[in-house]
């Protein structure tokens, strides 16, 4: 692939030598740093490109999105030069799964180059009753406690009012994005002809207190080629139990690269 000029939502220029670009979309309240270790965990031919949404981390001064349709429209425009250049795939975690699926749909409808595969983690299919809280349902202390309960925040920050004043507005705006999923342009799950013509692999944590695997499986109504993979861990299994998750993800990435599957490390004795 050729080297693409910098785009607003990427922290760096994509690698010119990559055989596959993996665009990664973070969870509600999160940022691109969630994927900081991924480049060292995936095949060398894959260029991991965390997508940084505005209003957090390196883009904290920029206004945040509250509407899924506006967010996807902007991402489709800003990322178009990268997506058109060569093979790409996408991974979205929690809220990021909604964003990744909507971006793939928008690209295909516009006649652009779609992803080779779509990987979705820890998010119920959007036509179901939302599992993430509604943005204004909880007071600040209640919302903070909920974030702690499913692993989205360290308990020590419950007593940091200054920190919560920064984090909670970000979380609420991201939850507004999730609540506006009907404007994201996803296929109609009741229309088999509208299903995405690509491989979709969804991941669910066996100990996820927020999202039941059966609700993740319901993504099968959005794609003709679907697989559900259950992995150890809670809502943030790529961080909590990375070994099994990356073992499965890397087998799928190797297939896209036309490489033999990676050899699993030997089991620990005993």
Automatic annotation (TrEMBL):
Domain Thioesterase: 21-242
GO biological process: lipid biosynthetic process
InterPro entries, sorted: AB_hydrolase_fold, TEII, Thioesterase
Organism the protein comes from: Streptomyces davaonensis (strain DSM 101723 / JCM 4913 / KCC S-0913 / 768)
Matches recorded under Pfam families: Thioesterase (PF00975)
Family: Belongs to the thioesterase family.
Protein name: Thioesterase domain-containing protein
Gene3D superfamilies: alpha/beta hydrolase
PANTHER family per the UniProt record, alphabetical: S-ACYL FATTY ACID SYNTHASE THIOESTERASE, MEDIUM CHAIN, THIOESTERASE
């Amino acid at each position: 692939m050729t080297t693409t000029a910098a785009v607003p939502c990427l922290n760096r220029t994509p690698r010119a030598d990559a055989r596959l670009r993996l665009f990664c979309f973070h969870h509600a309240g999160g940022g691109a740093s969630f994927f900081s270790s991924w480049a060292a965990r995936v095949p060398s031919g894959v260029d991991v490109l965390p997508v940084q949404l505005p209003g957090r981390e390196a883009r904290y001064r920029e206004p945040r999105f509250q509407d899924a349709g506006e967010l996807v429209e902007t991402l489709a425009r800003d990322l178009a030069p990268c997506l058109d250049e060569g093979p790409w795939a996408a991974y979205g975690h929690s809220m990021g799964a909604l964003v990744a699926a909507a971006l793939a749909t928008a690209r295909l409808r516009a006649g652009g180059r779609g992803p080779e595969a779509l990987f979705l983690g820890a998010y119920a299919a959007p036509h179901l009753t939302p599992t993430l809280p509604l943005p204004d349902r909880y007071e600040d202390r209640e919302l903070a406690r909920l974030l702690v309960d499913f692993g989205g925040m360290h308990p020590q920050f419950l007593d940091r009012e200054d920190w919560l004043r920064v984090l909670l507005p970000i979380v609420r705006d991201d939850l507004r994005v999730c609540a506006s999923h009907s404007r994201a342009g996803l296929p109609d799950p009741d229309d088999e002809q509208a299903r995405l013509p690509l491989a979709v692999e969804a991941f669910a944590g066996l100990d996820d207190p927020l999202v039941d695997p059966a609700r993740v499986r319901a993504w099968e109504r959005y794609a003709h080629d679907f697989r559900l993979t259950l992995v150890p861990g809670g809502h943030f299994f790529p961080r909590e139990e990375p070994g099994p998750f990356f073992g499965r993800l890397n087998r799928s990435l190797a297939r896209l690269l036309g490489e033999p599957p990676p050899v699993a490390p030997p089991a620990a004795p005993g």
